[in-house]
Structure prediction request, 150 residues.
Amino acid sequence: MSGYRKIAVAIDLSNESTAIINRARDVAAPQCELHLVYVQEPMDSVYMGVVPYGPVFVGMDEVEENLRSELMQKLNDFGEKAGVPEPNRHFLNGSPAPEIRRFAQEHALDLIVLGTHGQKGVQLLLGATANSVLHGSSCDVLAVRVFDAK
Prediction:
């Protein structure tokens, strides 16, 4: 096998992100087009149903915008350190699994690489996001087992 030519590496900007991108490089073809993808889930989606219309609390939009700016900077810092060109760093907004699948399909990717923490119970083998990406993706998915630093 000559390796994957177009890869999305979905990261959460945690300490494990380096291990995930390194694993993607292990399976990449020479001259691979590597994309970093981070998805920010809107704060109000976490509180869906609590307040059906409008923000959950006054000032939430400002808090979310500040968080977005910080996370975008972290993505750019990580991308620069990892040697991923700026046009290949993607900051998406929405629910992670559908956004990752959409991105992969729109960019005709060969592989999605993401981390999984190995949950208990129903999600024993894959985390919820990894499981959802795997079962709805139009390309191969590599779930990299990562462990929380304790």
Residues 60-82 form the longest helix (23 residues).
